[in-house]
User: Which sequence fits this backbone?
């Protein structure tokens, strides 16, 4: 039995702590005591603490064998840095915007294994691409992914598992995609296309900035794109709002008051986009890898459909993201992955044993990647 | 040659002043001197004045034979009252929300002819319904009407001839319609249906609160509705914004500042929905009157399509609204209509000579109502 410190007890952090507590001692830390209340488990010790302070982190993790970073994105990078400075192995899912490789030299110097972006997407898509890129010449990689409510209520037919501002960020940040070996920038919400999924029906997919580290690490794959899935019609509505300026962070003056339209939009969206307790939702993902193996064309597709778990009251987003992270944490604790330095999930995917371990770990929890091959 | 005072020199007020100046002396008054600048015509005298002050109005109209009310809706009722108190005949197009019949006793006492809502819709639709209701038993009356830019630019494919807040009012005020002899209330933007128009193509029509006085005066017509026309898809976008609270006048608190979302929305819409100088736009209207005449089924349809006039730089909204108003003003000056009191346009429509005069007056200006009969 090992000791793992989980920093952050939000929706995903909670699911991570509870999953790890099945086999390990867990220290779960969050600034919000309400988040910690539900973590009533003999193997979990909760600590209320301000994780924006490096000293707090150092104290909490001092006795841990491994650390999981599950804080909000804006404080993810500094948290990861604190953990590496404390010479602890770490798996991170905070999806921070900074370049993680800036911490690479420090991580190697401190003899630390640090894996970031270790969720469902980014995360599993990186792992599966790298896994197949070992044995085939990949010509094109596409990942479409989305989390949606089962109940479709017009006009938006959407609810957000995290803050509306973070969702809106996906609708505004330009999307990096790779076409014929060149990185190009497309507007978010562009190139809307319809796609159908078993048990779900027709959804729409549009460009979003989801490739992240792959743009850097997978330069030998000439075509790569990531798209977000929503019910059809959502992108047009969001495009209209964006076009009109509702997502702008630049302040305008209204009756003498300076205000950023995005703040008004977030305030209006928050109550409307909030999931009710126990509300049915799902995560759907399709990964397509096209290319050649031994001179022959080959197409591999992975399909994931994961639903809210009513028994454990765990959302599909928490399950698919959190369990990829806990699988990877166990991988490090088991000594299956021990490369020092900063590693994106595609580095883990290069190792056959690691990939099989993760897929098996997820399968045990009902998170199943259906593979088809042509 | 008579003298006519035109109160308000906005988009429609200007077109009214210029049209009347072809035959009459005109006094054109507005608080904004920029609005008055373009009225450079030997028969027009301009007066900069605050028309919210009854005294200003009394002075301006003292020598007029007739007054036209073309002020913004919110000050329309008090302006009309001031004119009636000054014992002047008046035609009004301010489309104020108050009940005009509250001024009926005063108008009769002061020996004044006062016709309100005298534009294209309300206005011409009321006139044409009443005209045919004289000789047939009308079972159903439908008016669909809209003003649109020729250039369709996504996402909204719309521009506003007046302030966005006034357009948004059409999207929020519940629509009164008459079904089987009963007045019922439907949400604005509801019952969206597609309809096609010559030279324009397919548009969508949705409920808006346009029947106004007809609900009261045409109790013998068992089915009446008015719908607004837009390019397809507009209603869903507007419904989404309304649903999310962007049209709400109730203040919310954002970062400690109290703000009404509608004010933010109006500020964002204003620059986006503004017509460029000389931009092509059109007004389209279809009036359908179904019923029986001498025991036989009869259907009468009027179609109007009017375009921006590049020669006179007059928008179709100003043409179709303003020239109905100036036709009616001439009707009163010619002694064709002389009933004292407050009159909605349907009262004018009961008089064959008046209707023929108005249709001819409009035809002379290129505003043509195509009639088809089945």
Assistant:
């Amino acid at each position: 039995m090992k000791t793992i410190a989980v920093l952050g007890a939000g929706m995903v952090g909670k699911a991570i702590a509870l999953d790890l507590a099945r086999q390990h001692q867990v220290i779960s830390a969050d600034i919000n005591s309400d988040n910690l209340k539900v973590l009533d488990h003999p193997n979990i010790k909760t600590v209320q603490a301000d994780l924006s302070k490096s000293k707090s982190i150092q104290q909490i993790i001092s006795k841990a064998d491994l650390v999981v970073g599950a804080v909000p994105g804006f404080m993810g990078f500094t948290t990861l840095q604190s953990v590496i400075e404390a010479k602890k192995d770490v798996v991170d899912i905070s999806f921070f915007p900074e370049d993680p490789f800036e911490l690479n030299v420090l991580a190697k110097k401190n003899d630390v294994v640090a894996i970031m972006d270790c969720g469902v997407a980014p995360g599993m898509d990186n792992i599966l691409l790298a896994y197949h890129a070992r044995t085939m010449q990949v010509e094109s990689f596409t990942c479409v992914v989305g989390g949606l409510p089962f109940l479709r209520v017009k006009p938006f037919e959407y609810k957000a598992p995290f803050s509306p501002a973070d969702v809106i960020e996906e609708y505004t940040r330009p999307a990096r995609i790779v076409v014929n070996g060149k990185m190009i920038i497309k507007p978010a919400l562009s190139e809307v296309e319809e796609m159908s999924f078993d048990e779900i029906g027709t959804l729409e997919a549009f460009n979003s900035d989801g490739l992240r580290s792959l743009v850097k690490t997978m330069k030998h794959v000439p075509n790569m794109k990531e798209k977000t899935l929503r019910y059809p019609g959502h992108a047009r509505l969001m495009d209209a709002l964006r076009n009109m300026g509702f997502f702008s962070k630049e302040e305008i003056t209204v009756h003498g008051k300076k205000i950023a339209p995005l703040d008004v939009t977030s305030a209006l969206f928050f109550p409307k986009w909030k999931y009710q307790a126990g509300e049915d939702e799902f995560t759907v993902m399709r990964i397509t890898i096209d290319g050649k193996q031994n001179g022959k064309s080959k197409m591999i597709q992975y399909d994931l459909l994961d639903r809210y778990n009513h028994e454990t009251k765990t959302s599909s987003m928490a399950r698919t993201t959190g369990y990829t992270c806990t699988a990877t944490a166990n991988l490090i604790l088991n000594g299956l992955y021990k490369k020092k330095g900063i590693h994106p999930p595609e580095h883990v995917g290069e190792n056959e044993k690691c990939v099989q371990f993760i897929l098996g770990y997820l399968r045990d929890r009902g998170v199943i990647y259906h593979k088809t091959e042509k």
In short: The CA atoms of residues 236 and 367 of chain A lie 31 Å apart. The first strand of chain A starts at residue 3 and ends at 7. Chain A has a mean pLDDT of 96. Chain A touches chain B through 26 residues (CB under 8 Å).
